[in-house]
Amino acid sequence: MAEAADFQGSGPSPARRWLRRTTALVAGAPLLAGLVQLPTAGPAHADGQPTAKADGDAGSVAVAVDSLTPSAPTDGDTVTVSGTVTNNGKQTVTDAHVGLRLGAEINTRSSIDAIARDGDDLQGTVAPEIDDKYSEKFSKLTPGVAEHFNISVPVDDLDLGDDGVYEFAVSLSGQTSAQPWEQILGIQRTFLPWQPDEAGTTTKTTALWPLVSTTHMAAETGANEEQTPVFLNDDLAKEISPGGRLNQMVTLGKDLDVTWVVDPDLLASVDAMTGNYSVRDGDRTVAGTHQDVAKQWLADLQDAVADKEVISLPFADPDLASLAHNGTDVTGSLNQLKSATDVIHNTVDPILHVKPSTDFAWPVDGAIDRSIVKVATSAGADKVIARSDSLQETSGLPYTPSAARPIGGGTTAVVADDRLSTAFEGDLAKASSSTLAVQRFLAQSLALNHQTSEQRSVVVAPQRMPSGSQARAMAEALRALQGGTWSESQKLSAAAAAKPDPEATTKVPSASSYPSALRKKELPRSAFVQIARTQDTLDNFKVVLSDPSRVATPFGRALNREMSASWRGRADEAASFRSGVKSYLDGLTGRVRLIDKSETKLSGRSATIPVTVQNNLVQDVGPLVLRLTSTNPTRLEIDGADYEEQPISVSGGHSQSVKFTTSANANGRATVIAQLYTADGRKYGDPVTFDVKVTEITATVMLVIGGGVLLLVLAGFRMYTQRKRAAAREAENAENAEKAEKAENNGSDGSDAAAEDPEDPDAPEDGPENQEGTDGRPEEESGARSRAGDPEQPSDPTPDTPAESADPSGTGERVDR
């Protein structure tokens, strides 16, 4: 940043102060004349003021300035300095004392930087001590032991000159056994802003007060009606509890005139904690217990932002630079930024009861290039908060210009001052570090005010997530600034609308100018590819649900969180979060699936094949389309074609089967694929593939089977007729046997009995032709009749066919005739 290197530009001091100081100089002239002749006198600083050189073991004692009050004194004040001195050497320091040293007025902002950088360096020049009565003595300083000091001096005795910034130092002088003479053994330089009266031209200062945190909520929610939110850990409860970082931010910011910059994700997360919520604890989740803490923090925040300007970042504070450099060529990435912007009013307004501004985009560290500006404004913002170490002055301006810069396309860059914005970075846990940061901030602000008599608007954009100690230092500095005499507070919107300096640069740097240290921490392209794939899965899932909001909201916000700037420097944690979201979504979509099928056998020309869809979600799904496809339709057709589709809906916790009609054209094995589709024709879930073994029945086979059936019928008819004949013969044999028995019984009355009955047609006739047999019949017939009635003799021949049973023949029994 260009600045006034050799001139001040401030107005003259009031007449009464000039008269008082002139009188003091005249009265002290003899004393000053004697001091000039001291051997230790020398230039105090590069500006030609008297100094004292350090000797020998300089730097063996550490000097810490823990407090300096007031930070910006005015007439009549008493400056009190307290802190510690610690002997870090090996020898005891004797005849030691702590003294105060006032250097010359500092004319440039770069000189402030140089003094702050070498604040404890004894190799440079050192200003002389003020009156010896404003010191604290120690008989000895034992190695490793810290000694406290507290020195107060009236401002009038400091004999400050014109309004401006002065170097102010605390030193420890003493001697050691090795070097038994007085020398400066330790020093700490800081600054004393001096503007006792109202400045003729004040600087309008805008201070941003960021409420931003890391990601705390998971995509997972409970299966109950309320969808109980699940937190990754209990860290957010610690941050908003008394003493926590975010609790301090609200408490400190309440009494400051600042512009609040909030992340809707933080508000939504704390709001979720006011009801029932769960916290992951290893492989399980436990019930959250910090509802009262969350309610109190939100109540305090609502009170703090009342009647204050509130700027809302997109949901989860997306990393604009990472998106611009690595995500714009990934389909859907810019839509994620738009969705993160669209939910602002549905989140911030109901929780804070204020209407936030959504016109501002804030890239990480205010570092911009043309691609970042393009992405930042793609979701509707027309103002980009940049920083002066990114949008650097190139025209040689001898002062810091106002923040607003038109950069083309209707976009305004609001350029924060880099020195003021970075004043509270680093470890400020020690009181001495915090005090130095506050004094440096005030010194830079006053030096900026004195650069020119033109009024300017300046913006302070600190780090996004200041620690508790950093927040306390920021608040202390802003309280001093807002209670001072050279600055007045201004809202960010007013700073953006202020008249731009026509000499200020408006050229946005190219992408090659983006700091390499920041680029190394960006989200990689693979992160945006994974986000896009998860979004695609979510889109497929939503359309099949009866209540898509149960997944659209938690997963939509989880995808916003995957792009958060808070992942910078935490690549492994970011990758783990993305994988967790994807795995959980895949698990939900997998609860609606096709049941696996084993090989199916198909006999005949046609049959039906059932395919089952299972829904293990608590809500209904559908309409889905189930398609069954034959990979070999010449062998197996589905409803007379290659495939068939049928709609299906399944109630929560149930399964549903769909039957498909198939027809076989040839024997063999055919592969069939079942696949679910959404109503818009996109595949849903994994397909199920199974084989159908076809056994086709041809015309020849039908003839063979028909012939076999005919043979069986004929064989049965033949068996029936044979059994009927056998039964008739048995009946005839029984009748003959009965007749023979009767004949035998009649033979006891005489052989002529038959002849006595002339009417008996069977009676034998006497005559020579009948003499061949004893009964008047031929011998052969007579013999046959005799055997029929006589008992069977052992010598009789066996009959040709035994008597047959009338029962059905046994299975497989063969009957021959």
Short description:
Residues 754-769 have a biased composition (Acidic residues). The protein has 817 residues and is an alpha/beta fold.
Describe the structure.
- The protein is α/β, with parallel strands linked by helices.
- Helix content is 33%, strand content 24%.
- Strands 8, 11, 14, 19 and 20 form a 5-stranded parallel β-sheet that branches.
- A hairpin with a 7-residue loop joins strand 6 (164-175) and strand 7 (183-194).
- The longest helix has 48 residues, at 699-746.
- The relative contact order is 0.08.
- Mean pLDDT is 85; it is low at 1-58 and 748-817.
Please report the total strand number as a whole number.
29
State the share of residues found in helices, binned by percent.
25-40%
- Global morphology: elongated
Major beta sheet summary: 5 strands, parallel
Going by helix content, strand content and strand pairing, the class is alpha/beta
- Uncertain segments of ≥5 residues (pLDDT<50)? 1-58, 748-817
Quickly count the helices. 22
Strand content: 15-25%
Rounded mean pLDDT is 85
N- to C-terminal separation? 127 Å
Backbone CA Rg: 54 Å
Distinctive features:
single chain; 817 residues; alpha/beta; five-stranded parallel sheet; five-stranded mixed sheet; 22 helices; 29 strands; 33% helix; 24% strand; disordered N terminus; disordered C terminus; transmembrane; transmembrane helix; DUF6049
